[in-house]
Amino acid sequence: MNNDRRKVVLIGTGMVGMSFAYALVNQGGICNELVLVDVNKDKAMGEAMDLNHGLAFAKSNMKIYAGDYHDCKDADIIVIAAGVAQKEGETRLDLLQRNTEVFRSIITPVVKSGFDGIFLVATNPVDIMTRVTYELSRFGASRVIGTGTSLDTARLRYLLGDYFTVDPKNIHAYVIGEHGDSEFVPLSQVMLATKQVSEILADDRNDYNTEDMERIEEQVRTAAYKIIEAKRATYYGIGMAITRIVKAILGDENSVLTVSAKLRGEYDSKGVFIGVPCIIGRNGVKEVLELSLTEEEKEKFRSSAAILDESFEGLKL
Ligand code: NAD
Hints:
The chain is α/β, with parallel strands linked by helices and 317 residues long. The protein has helices at residues 15-27, 41-54, 92-112, 126-137, 150-164, 197-202, 210-231, 236-250, 295-313; strands spanning 7-11, 33-37, 63-66, 77-80, 118-121, 144-146, 171-172, 191-192, 195-196, 255-264, 270-281, 284-288. The strands form three sheets. It has a six-stranded parallel beta sheet with strand order 3-2-1-4-5-6, with helices on both faces. Strand 1, helix 1 and strand 2 form a beta-alpha-beta unit. It is globular, with a radius of gyration of 20 Å. The mean pLDDT is 96. The structure holds nicotinamide-adenine-dinucleotide (NAD).
């Protein structure tokens, strides 16, 4: 008997969804059953065929097939990367409303199937769509997670690693807040190994400076715009970020990742779903970590949370 069955259902087999699926197959050993669901059934079927043909070259075996909402019943994680694109002349709020309807058509049958696992949302605007998932599913907040600023944090570490010529794995830094224009880097919390980067910047014996930090923060904030300008969409990075979160959940890692989670008083905020460092394990969000922010950073966080609250309140659920 196989007690180690780990099943993931992916809803939305577009560029983001399939980049995740491709990373999952290539990294191997994370889960052993992957179901692909899309409103475009032919697309899901074709993608399942294509991935299956690569299995002979993959590290570990996996059962991959196109399915439907009945397949969610015994899944561990539902990854949602389904969404509609902005139409010409459409406002952000109109798009949000249409994506909310897409989510209603997804969450209702998932819950009806008897699914009792964890929702992981990547669809943008991810913080709002995660909150919509929470409201529609009525699941406990720890079991509804968004990709939040996980990709932004990876981008930040990559750029800081490059700047200090240090392996990004030894850079400890987070992008927090909305996955969007109001996100920011609390500089007081950036560490190179266990050394405060603010101390390195203040040291006249090197050329590192605060202006470069601001430039890096801006590069992180505008990375998606740049990629979209160059190749119309971003997908590999987010696909790998989703894979990382799925691995942390299924492996019960208790790893710290900057996901979109519900705040219950942390950072002076309540109810909002927003990117913050969280301990992620088998049951989803085990704990929201509250960083020791400066007064200025606290203010930036509050205004980012206020932007998200306002967008959510404009929605008809
Ligand atoms: P895409 O258009 O390639 O794919 C979307 C898929 O969703 C399509 O296959 C479509 O058929 C499917 N879909 C639409 N309505 C559906 C429904 N009701 N039920 C099931 N499936 C449905 O788009 P993409 O490039 O893969 O992007 C997907 C989402 O991911 C977008 O919202 C995008 O903004 C977001 N995204 C998020 C991040 C992040 O950091 N969180 C990064 C990049 C992109």
